[in-house]
Amino acid sequence: MSVLQTLKDRSGNTCELCASSQDLKQYTIPPSLNENVANDVLACKVCLGQIEGHEDVNPNHWRCLNDSMWSEHVAVQIMAWRMLQRLRDEGWPKDLLDMMYLDDEALALARATGEHEDASNKIIHRDVNGVALNAGDSVVLIKDLKVKGTSIVAKQGTAVRNIRLDHDNDKYIEGKVGAQQIVLVTDYVKKI
Hints:
Layout: H1 3-11, E1 24-28, E2 40-44, H2 45-51, H3 65-68, H4 74-86, H5 92-99, H6 104-111, E3 125-126, E4 132-133, E5 139-141, E6 145-146, E7 153-154, E8 159-160, E9 164-165, E10 172-177, E11 180-185, E12 189-191
Antiparallel strand pairs: 1-2, 3-4, 5-8, 5-12, 6-7, 9-10, 10-11
Helix pairs in contact: 4-6
């Protein structure tokens, strides 16, 4: 059975965050690179747009986290914690965060993207033009790049989709070129 089908079965074919049944997609929580049931959630288009930063965050939409934060699935708990952290200035998310419990391993994974840090402490990744990059964005290579340790040359114009950010260095991102997972330097990519 596919990961997507397993997610649909465990969620009753609804968004695991807001319970919507419209436009559902599989989402692998960063910094995970492997699609599997432990690292993925089933989310609707509205939730995904706000999680990935393609849409403005609507705090009232996320009041659903009052229910989904109690999910038995760790990936759902982690996404609920991250969104509550983003919204903590609203007031009500602080109360939910105080009630929420994550074991040490889940909390470490939840903190991996830096949602809990103040904006002044966050590392911001920028492409060659200075545009901020977010996890899940798509970029295009602006020059041919030799991939270290292989005989592969990533050609100029190659699109790299669903990038991951290195949370220790603002110059490094990860993505797939063909079937190969590689690290890219932000100085050689442009956001699509």
